[in-house]
C-alpha cells in the first residue's frame, strides 16, 4: 500500500507538473478540450501508474535436507520449511512490554499507514462536510426554470452560476439582477458542464487529492483540472462566435467572478486563471498536428512515469550466488568424480533426491534468500535409460545440451517459465561454481551429469497445496509447521501479538543440551504479548514474518504457565514466511500459556501470534 502510494504520487506528480508548466502554450495551441483530456490522463497516474513491476525480493524462509540410506524405497531428501508474510497486516495489533522485556513496537510501515489514513479521512471530511452543507443551503429554493433535465434555482448563498449535485444535478443562479443575455450564456455554460460530466470528474480529482494529501502537487493537479474543464467549456461555447460575441461572453464570466466549494462546477475563478481564460477565448489557435503532438505527449508521459517509478522502486537484480538463491548439485569432495557421478545418477547405493522451494525468479529459497515461494520442487538426476515413463525436453544452456525429464506428476509444467528459469539458474551456477574449501573440478562433474544423465522434475507443488508437517507429542499435543503465503487466510480467534520485538541473544555458546538450551531460553528470552488461554478446539499459530541478515535465526518456546513447563520449542528457526502451530493435548486444554523468544544475535524480528479454530489436518491426527 505504501509503495503504491509513493509510486503513484511520483508518477502523477511528474506528469501533472509537466502539463501545469506548459499549460498556457499547450491550451493556446491545441485547444482547451484537448488540454482538459490530457490533464485528466496525467491525473489518472496518481492511481494507475504506468509502471512495470520489477521483482523485489522479500524475506522468507529456509530449509535443511538429509540424504536417505540405501534401503529407502523412495530416497528423498526431507526438508522442514515454513513461510510467513512480510506484507503489512492491516488488522495488526501490537503489545508492549518494558524495554528490558523486549519492547515491541508497531512497524514503521504501520505508523506511516496509520498517519496517512488519518490525513485521508480528515481531508474527506473537510471536503464533503463543506460540500453537503453548502448544497443543502444552496438548492432549497423552488425551481424557476428548467434546462433539459436540469432544474434551475435561485439562491442567496451563491455569487456565480454553478452546477451542484451528481445523480440529480441542479443549476443554481445567484439572487441578483442578471440580464437575459448573461442568463442564457450562464445556463449554456452549466449545461455543457453537465454534458461533460465535470462534477464526476472533479469528484475523482478530489478523491485523488485526499489519497495524496501529503503531496503538494496533488493540490496543484486538483486546481489544474478545475481550470482545464473551464477551458473545455469555453472552447465549446465560443468556437463559432465572432470576436464581439467572445468579448461579451468574457464580460459575463468577469461579472460572476467569485469563489465557492471545490466540488461545484462554476464560473468563478481567480484573477490569474481569468486572465488565462480570456486570452484563450479571444486568441484561439487550434493549429494543425494535434494528433501527432498528442501522441508524442502521451508517449512522453508514459516514458517519464515508467522511468521515474522504476528508478525509485525497482530493486537491482542480484547476481546469482550461493547466498542469493544459487542451487549447487551436491558433491562429496572425499569421493572421486566418477563415484560422485554414480551416486548422483543413482547407479550406486544411494540416490539423491532434493526437495526445495523456489521463488518467481527460479531461485532457491533459504535463510540467505528470504523471498516468497512460488513452487515447491522435487528434483534429481538419473541415468538416461531410467526415464522411460517420463516426458523429455532438451535445453541448451551455456552452450551445453541438457535433457530434462518430467514425471507424470509434473508433466503439466513442461513449458513453465519459472521451472525453466530454475533449471537455467542451476546449470549456469553449477558450471561456474568453485568450492571455497575443497578444490575439485565441479564443472567436469556437471558436464558428465549432462552427458550421461537427465535432470528430472519429479513433482511441482503450488502455494495453494502447501501442507503442514505435523507430529504428535507424548502429551497428545499436535505440533507442526508450514510455509504460508497470501493464499493462507487468518481466521483468528484471539490476537496475542503482532509487531516487531527486540530479541536478546541467547548465551548458549552453541554447546549446551536441548534441556539446558530450553532453560536458557526460558530465563533469557523475551515474552511476546501477554499470557493467553488456549481453549478446546483452538490452535496456537506463530508466524515468523521477518528476520534480518544480522539475525536470520531465532529461538522460541511455548511455556505452559499452569504447569511451568515448556510444551514446545524450536531452536534456530531460520524460516521467515513460516507458520508454527501448537494444538494442546487433552490435559493441556484451558491452560494459560506464553511465548518467549530470543535471537542468535540481538536484533528485531517481526512476529505474529494468535489462535484459530483447529483445522482438519490437526483433528485427523488427534482422532
What layout of secondary structure does this protein have?
Layout: H1 2-21, H2 23-30, H3 32-44, E1 104-105, H4 108-138, E2 145-147, E3 150-155, E4 162-164, E5 170-174, H5 180-195, H6 198-211, H7 216-238, H8 243-255, E6 265-266, H9 271-282, H10 290-313, H11 337-345, E7 353-358, E8 375-383, E9 391-397, E10 400-406, H12 417-432, H13 442-452, E11 453-461, E12 469-472, E13 478-483, E14 492-503, H14 514-524, E15 526-527, E16 532-533, E17 538-546, E18 554-560, E19 565-573, E20 578-583, E21 592-599, E22 603-613, H15 616-622
Parallel strand pairs: 3-5, 10-11
Antiparallel strand pairs: 1-14, 2-3, 4-5, 4-6, 7-8, 8-11, 9-10, 12-13, 13-20, 14-22, 15-21, 16-21, 17-20, 17-22, 18-19, 18-21
What does this structure look like?
The protein has helices at 2-21, 23-30, 32-44, 108-138, 180-195, 198-211, 216-238, 243-255, 271-282, 290-313, 337-345, 417-432, 442-452, 514-524, 616-622; strands at residues 104-105, 145-147, 150-155, 162-164, 170-174, 265-266, 353-358, 375-383, 391-397, 400-406, 453-461, 469-472, 478-483, 492-503, 526-527, 532-533, 538-546, 554-560, 565-573, 578-583, 592-599, 603-613. With 623 residues, the chain is α+β, with helices and mostly antiparallel strands. It has 3 domains: 2-52 and 139-307, no CATH class; 337-362 and 374-464, no CATH class; 466-622, Jelly Rolls, CATH 2.60.120. The chain has a 7-stranded antiparallel sheet, covered by helices on one side. Strand 2 and strand 3 (150-155) form a beta hairpin. Helix 1 (2-21) packs antiparallel against helix 10 and helix 8 (243-255) runs antiparallel to helix 9 (271-282). The longest helix is centred in the N-terminal third of the chain and has 31 residues, at 108-138. It starts with a helix and ends with a helix. The model is unreliable at 50-105 and 509-513 (pLDDT under 50).
